[in-house]
Amino acid sequence: MARRNAAEVLSGAVVLLLAAGFLGFAIAHSGRSSVSGYTLTAKFDHIDGLAVGADVRLAGVKVGSVLDERIDPQSYLAVVTLSVRSGLELPNDSSAAINSESLLGGEYVSLSPGGDTAMLAPGGMITITQSTVSLEQLLGKFIFSVTDLVSAMKPGQGSGQPQAAPQGSSDGSPGGAPPGAQPGAKQP
């Protein structure tokens, strides 16, 4: 019995060691490593889905990560603190947008450099920002616009039913015949 217990404990320890090894490998190769550098801040209307640790990318290449998110109590805007790789200088008129990795994926901050000759200093503020685009809001707007379009259509339009002829005479003169006149009769 003692042999069996020792074998179970030993096999359990081996399984735990293998699990710890797989966990260490997954963390080391996850691609979520932090990038050392200088910090910048940006204010957004809303940052739905953006998390601390998310990527900061320039031309699709990871150049930093999101360090902090908070609310500015005066403007009620979301303030995001970004870390950007050292040696990468961004012009003052650079912009930041929150983009989605995929329909089901997370969000990241995309930087677009401007054309100014002056560069953002460490701790500087990116003033041109674009918040996240909510897929749910877009879908809701589409559904409501289609509903409004359908309800605005008058009965008979587009259903193949004959429409009333516009008023006017067949000879092209405006106004047509006065009420009570015989069709085809000449008017004075």
Walk me through the topology.
Elements: H1 2-28, E1 37-44, E2 55-58, E3 61-71, E4 78-85, E5 95-100, E6 107-112, E7 125-126, E8 128-130, H2 135-152
Parallel strand pairs: 1-7, 2-6, 5-8
Antiparallel strand pairs: 1-4, 2-3, 3-4, 5-6
Give the gist of this structure.
By secondary structure, the chain is of the alpha/beta class. The protein has helices spanning 2-28, 135-152, and strands at 37-44, 55-58, 61-71, 78-85, 95-100, 107-112, 125-126, 128-130.
Structural notes for this entry:
By secondary structure, the chain is of the alpha/beta class. It has a domain at 37-137. The chain is built from two helices and eight strands, in the order αββββββββα. The chain has helices at 2-28, 135-152, and strands at 37-44, 55-58, 61-71, 78-85, 95-100, 107-112, 125-126, 128-130. The chain has an eight-stranded mixed β-sheet with strand order 7-1-4-3-2-6-5-8, with no helix packed on it. The longest helix has 27 residues, at 2-28. The protein is flat, with a radius of gyration of 33 Å. It starts with a helix and ends in a 36-residue tail after the last helix. The relative contact order is 0.13. The mean pLDDT is 80.
Name some characteristics of this structure.
single chain; 188 residues; alpha/beta; eight-stranded mixed sheet; 2 helices; 26% strand; flat
Distance between the termini: 124 Å
Describe the oligomeric state of these chains in a short phrase: single chain
What average pLDDT do the residues reach? 80
Strand content: 25-35%
Helix/strand/pairing category: alpha/beta
Give me the Rg, rounded. 33 Å
The helix fraction, in percent, is: 10-25%
| Approximate shape | flat
Biggest sheet statistics: 8 strands, mixed
Individual helix count: 2
**Number of E strands:** 8
Order of helices and strands: HEEEEEEEEH
Uncertain regions: pLDDT < 50 for 5+ in a row? none
Major beta sheet, strand line-up: 7-1-4-3-2-6-5-8
